[in-house]
Design brief:
9-stranded mixed β-sheet; 8-stranded mixed β-sheet; single chain
Length: 292
Amino acid sequence: MYSIRPGILCIAFTIIATMSQSATAGIIPPSNSDSDYTDLANESRFAPVGEIIINGGSSQASGTVINNNFVLTSAHVLDGANSVTFSVDGSSYTTTEWIIHHQWTGNFSNGHDIALVKFAGGLGGASVANLWTGGTSLTGMEGINVGFGKSGTAVTGAVNQSGTKRAGKNNIDLYSGGQLYQDFDDLNNADGINFLGTSNQLGLEYLIAGGDSGGGLFIESGGTTYLAGIHSYVADNNGNNFYNDITISTSVSDYSSWISSNTVAVPEPSSFALMGMGLAGFAFTVLKRRKA
């Protein structure tokens, strides 16, 4: 059951085995064409979103390039990771360096499900996403969810394997505690299945699924596409991604300072500064995997 905790603007979820799932790509209304979702994902504005493979294939997730050395993703996809391979623009890059938010506890409802994966050798000039830093007043705006997760319909649930990039739309229904909420509306039962916000089903209504974790929730503002959220989990009240389930994403704007403070550009060898007046010496900053 979903309920509002008295005196606090948040959603409390009764935890059952299937209630909170890591984001598992996309569930669509059965009358819609899957090709519309793959076509949207392949638009150039979503080129920064790539696929993450953990430990050579033990699990799959998604992430978004935010500069030539860093990919933004969710913290939980890195739990137990020893190596990360990120594929974008037809190229793959492997690393063992990442930064997990220091307040991530492994409990989805506590939030802070955000992390940075670092590629010291660069990402080959891959496209870079614009980060939304304009605050959290996004309720009612149209969101576009992008990732590589499993797929299916509101009738079948998530039955097809992950690995294909899809994008779909959903209204942002609520902001609470550093998280953005979107529920999967049923056009034919708007009054009976609508937990949050508007009951209007969008033309490309969408619910994320397994493998979408770490993928991007994008918004449009002033003619520019911005990365506003990082997919965290699905509040699943029935076991397999159907109408009335809720996508929860970590709000990028809440963590803009943390992101900027941990994404120091990696200098090329020729650019290390010569230290001291008339003295030959180099200053090296050793960057290693850590929790920020």
